[in-house]
Amino acid sequence: MSFLRRSGFLFYQIGGKKMISGKTKLAGFFAAPASHSFSPIMHNTAFKLCGIDAVYLAFEVDCHHLKQALESIRVLDMLGGNFSMPNKIAVLDYLDELSPEAELIGAVNTVVHKNHQLIGYNTDGMGFIRAVKEVGQTVVNQKMIVLGGGGAAKAIIAQMALEGAKEVNVYKRKNTTFFLFKEYLAKVSEKTGCPIFLHDYANESQLVRDLKQADLLINATDIGMGKKEGCLPLSHASLLSSNLTVFDLIYSPSETQLLKEAKKLGIKGYNGLDMLIHQGAIAFELWTQKEMPIEEIRRCLGVYEENKDV
Prior knowledge:
It contains 10 helices and 15 strands. The chain has helices spanning 39-49, 66-75, 100-105, 124-134, 151-163, 178-192, 204-213, 257-264, 273-288, 294-307; strands at residues 2-6, 9-14, 17-19, 25-31, 54-60, 80-83, 97-98, 110-114, 117-121, 143-147, 167-172, 196-200, 216-219, 245-248, 269-270. Helix 1 crosses helix 9, helix 4 packs across helix 5 and helix 5 (151-163) runs parallel beside helix 6 (178-192).
C-alpha cells in the first residue's frame, strides 16, 4: 500500500493501482442508451494520464429523470457531465447559464458545475472544427455541403458559420421537421452573416451543382452505419468531385462506403473519430482546466474499438 500526491490530488494505491479516495470527483454521461459510449474510456484514461483524482461513469437517463440528474450534479458537487440523445435539448430547461454557441445551437452536450451554477456548452461543432484544422483543412471562406439535419449537423453548421464559412448548403429530407429546421438555419444565418441554404435531399440536380463548387462535404446522416452499413448517402459515387474533402461523422465502421469511394477517386476523407475525441477534449478542458492528451486517447480508443467484440 502507498500514497501518491500528483497535481494537488491524493491517490491511494494498492499494488500499484489507483484507488478511489475520499476526495475523488465525479463526472458522467447522461443518455438513453448510454452503455455504447466511448466517453468513459476516453475521460477515465485522460484523468489517469493527467493525474486527476476523478472518475467518469455512464448513466442511463432519459427526459423523465433529467431534472433529478441535473440536480445530482449540483448536490454531489460533480465536475459536470456530458449529455446525448434524448437529452441535448431538454437539458436547457434546467441550466443556469448557456455559452454563446449553445444558445445559438439550442442544444447542450456538456455541462460544467462551477460555483454551484450549471453552465451549458455545445462542444460538437467546436470538436469538428478542431478535427478539420488537425488535418490541415479550414472552414474559413470555404463552401460547405452538409448532408443531414440532426443534432450534430445543427452544431456543426452553427460553428462553421461562426468560424467564417463562405456558404453552407444543407441537404435534408423533406419531412415534418423540414420547415422548423429552415427557421433554425435562418436564425443562424442572421446572427452570423453566413449564407445558409436548405435543400430537399431529393433535389439531386442542385446537389450535383453544389458538389462541383464545394470545398468540404460533411455526411451528418446515419447512412453508412448499423443496418445502413455499406450504403452511400449519395445516389452514386460519381457525384463526388476531385476538389472536395470529405468528412463522415460516422466512426464505426472506421471506413464507411462514402470514405471508400472517396479513396478510390483520390479524394481526402476522414471519419468522425477525431471529432468525437476533440469534442470530449473540450469538455475535459472545461471541467479540469487541463489539456486532454489527444494522441494517447486516440491510441486507447483505437485499441478498444479493435477488441471490444472479442
